[in-house]
Amino acid sequence: MKKKIAVTILSAGLLGGMVADSPVRAAEPSEALKLAQQLNQAFVEVAESVSKSVVVVRVASKPRARGGVGNPFDNSPFFDQLPEEYRKFFERQQEEQREEQQTPPRRSRPRGPVFDGQGSGLVYREDGIILTNRHVVENADKVQIVFQGGKEYNGEVLGVDRQSDIAVVKIDATGLTAAKMGDSDKTKVGEFAIAVGSPYELDYSVTVGHVSAKGRRVFSDQMMFDQDFIQTDASINPGNSGGPLVNIYGEVIGINTLIRGVNTGIGFAIPVNLAKRVADMLIEDGKVTRAWLGVSITTLREDADYRDLAVGVEDGVVVRQFVSGGPAENSDLELADVITEVDGNSVKSAEELKRELRLKKAGDSVTLGLMRNGKAREIEVETGAFPEEFTAVSRMRRSERKPEADTKAKLLGMTVQNINADLAKRFEVEGEKGVIVTAIENDSVAAEKGISPGDIVTRINSVPVDSVASFKAALEGEDLKKGVIVHLTSEGSQRFEVLKQYE
Questions:
Q1: 490 is catalytic
Q2: Domain 291-385: which CATH class?
Q3: Active site includes 135?
Q4: Where along the chain do its domains lie?
Q5: CATH class of the 408-499 domain in this structure
Q6: What is the band of 437 on the pLDDT scale with cuts at 50, 70, 90?
Q7: Of 53, 164, 205, 241, catalytic
Q8: Does the annotation mark 487 as catalytic?
């Protein structure tokens, strides 16, 4: 009996061994898991491929009168937008560098430049052309380009462009792996977006998100002319500036340049098509020449005052002001015209108009389709070269004086008089036709619109004004609750404002 039990146990042991050693077929991954694995591998391949063309841009700042160490964001139009915690990071970094740079004993004094700032960049051409942000390198005394693997090159800044925040750096190298350029015009909202750069000196960091929006404006015209940003939720931080934003194919679609807020998932990149155009001009000429019309414009749908007065048009770009001496000032273009086309291409916003002009060279003639007083027109306007340091025309507020006992008229807080020798001398106007604004009431509609004493009213709606009498006549029968269009000149600049009586 015992023997039988032993045999049984042994047999069971052998059977168990046989079962344990037999191969077990693993479950096949689901189609969903296979897709996820493929996507995972795609991100890995993109990161590996793009990183070969990404560089670290190290800068040694020029000495400052106040002493101290700088950082690449000091010259950026975006620096004030940095969250407090980011600014504190740079302050701590600078303080540490100051301590390290305290004069040591002569025998241990460091030699060579101290690289105290850092950004990112990419290889634009295999012959040593590097693309980055202007604010990273503009005021650098020395520039050093560092590749993945640690190879270093001294860089020479070939040119910077303030209006787009693009810069080009040259290094003495050939046979580099240039970044693969995409087409930002074909980029769609919702696509994957991958940022590669060196945030907080963490070199070759990769973050993944999406294209959140296109055609974003962040600042007023006074800050930057070229604003057509790609918005992304791929994490971008200080140090990412100048690095690439790429799509799932590893193609560069933008140059990372700006963050907004803390942990908001809102970053901005310069569209690569714009960056390439600027870079090519910097390489060729060392500067960028832009075509412009010399007008201040608004998007009709966003112009709450004027859109109800525009006849026969719902979308377009409103000509609000002529810049004194600008190309359009003496053209057939008129204030309050609504531009709807440029060379046959529809434009519905101010950004779309600027986008069309970017494709032109200074001196090119453009055909503008527009609506004027409810009628469609086409006119030719020759573009000019955008001034390098142009800022919006500022209108000086002149001190108000008590108006003389003369024929005068009022409109929503604005007093006008006929132009005479005394008023012309007082307000420094010469050869102007119209009526002159001599007083503005505080907190009035005219004051809110920025109208100042010394401004000249030349038209009310489409009616020319050359006297107080014609001024009053032009207002007869007009519904001020609907609003009237007032054409003005100020220091040679022409513009219009909508004056409207609010309930």
A1: no
A2: mainly beta
A3: yes
A4: 38-99+113-288, 291-385, 408-499
A5: mainly beta
A6: very high
A7: 241
A8: no
